[in-house]
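Sharing a chain and its predicted structure for anyone who wants a worked example. Both blocks are below, sequence first, tokens second.
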Amino acid sequence: MQETIDLALRLNPDVKTARIQRTMDKYSLVVAKNEFEFQYSLTGSAGITQSIADGNHNAWQARYNVIPGVNYKTAYGTQLSLEMNNSIADTYNPSLTFKVMQPLMKGFGPAVVQAALENAYTNDKVSSLSLKTTIINTVTQVINDFNKVAATKRNLDVQVSNLNRKIETRDQTLAKINAGELAQTNLIQSEADLSNAQAAVERARNQLSSDTLSLLSEIGLDSEANIEIVPDTPMTKFTLPTLEKAKTLAVDNNIGYLASELAIESTKRSVLTAEDGRRWQLNLSAAQTVGGGVGSGQNANLSSLSNGANMNSSISLDLTIPIDDVSAKQSEINAKGALEQATILLKQSKRQLEISITQKVYALESEKKEVSLNEQSVDYHLQDVENAKKLYKAGRLSQFELSNRQDNLTTAQQQLLESRYQYFGDLVALDAMLSHTLVTWGISMDEDQ
């Protein structure tokens, strides 16, 4: 089974698609981080002009300009920029401008300024959980399909064993008829039982073929793939936890519940952003430009940036007061309402998760007992059939009674297979609910695969 799981993780199309999506989602966080990193720019222009004044043609004049710049935004909303204008015409007249803008009310503080970045971190976690969900769901489905193939194979073995018993009984009946111990009519019952057993074997073979194709599809293999499936169901990989332990593990690890908790965090930030949107906007701005003169001499070349010949400084305070902004009010109401709804749904999700865990643990405890009882039943029926065969051979038991006891053994064996299949399937399901599947099967969440 482990080899089948490893193969599915490499070939299953859902896993492949999820890994590609995860790679794309990662870049959203890179973009969000980039907002608080240095932003560089470089623009340039070149051109020539000619003018006519009083009928006189002036000479063509070439103009060039290269403008490098850098911008930076802090977690407190401070915006800094530095830009150098390199204007060249008849002379080189550069200028250097530094600007700073600091929000003092609206748009101030990391909680508001970096809300989008924090949402990006949250979305990245949700994206990672989404990939994990796809892997767990795929592994769970592969295990269930494999378990079904294993059960079908064992059922085929049961039907073949039953067929062999029917053949043995038919041969014994035929020998008794030839010896004059039974009437010829007794052979009809044996042949009928034999035909039924042969039909059951064919049905089991057909079911095995169908279940195998389903498993190959889930793995990501073509139907013509030639692989041998060894019917192992390693129940020893699982340890059935106590109810309280299972509830704790579910709340701490269940992916759906964790995603709901992350959604709450994003909704809280939406409330902060909406509240900030209703505040007064008060911005403090300052700028200073050096250089930028005209002509030659002290106004030209790089020295003009530091000789103090040309300088322009400014400081301003800008205030915007929203008046009856119903749109901003609506955004705040909607954000707070969404948070209340999400909180209610999270509590309900926790209750439902604990109920589901409780139901599954109780079911597993019952199924474990059922498997044990069915094992005992099969042992008793095996002994009963052996005794019946001896009695039939000695002529102390009818063929009809022997056939019934053989059928009872087959039924008991099928019930054991079904109970084991159900028990193992529910162990796998509980493991998935606890988001413990990857740990159980030693699967690494390598997102770069």
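Comments welcome. Residues 142 and 183 are 53 Å apart (CA to CA).
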